[in-house]
Write a structure and sequence with these properties.
Layout (H helix, E strand, L loop, with lengths): L1 H15 L2 E4 L6 E8 L4 E8 L1 H4 L6 E5 H10 L12 E8 L4 E6 H7 L1 E3 L6 E5 L4 E5 H12 L2
Parallel strand pairs: 3-5
Antiparallel strand pairs: 1-2, 2-3, 4-8, 5-6, 6-9, 7-8
Amino acid sequence: MFEEEMNRLRAKYAQMHRRPIFDNTGRKVIATFYYDPDEETGYVDKEVEQESHQLRMPPAWAMDIDVINQIKRHCTWDINMEGTRYKILFRIHARDTDSTYITDLTMWDKHGVEFDRGYGKQIYLPLKYWSGGLTRQDYNQHFQLNMFS
């Protein structure tokens, strides 16, 4: 009974901490942020088509600078009991290849490169800073194994 109640509360808490991330116009939802209290981790989830969204030269994933700043401003508000911020992971799922790429928010500051190819100011993060190309099955196995290690 207690475990069922805890699971219900966790699900409610995670749902309360879900928020959309909008593009520069503020009209289109381009990703979703949610917080997992058990892992003390925030996740930015984005679904894309790898063929049309991944940069080829250099091989990288890119985001609008304003979107990265929006995530920093609005998604790092939760403070844990020790007074430190939780980590935020980006997960990009490529629907066409069924691959998942993961990186930490801090990588954008450390290794991101600003550029503008006519779509507004963006920042790209080279693929070498992503744990990437995991298929959905690999991704699930990876995180299930890490839960028990």
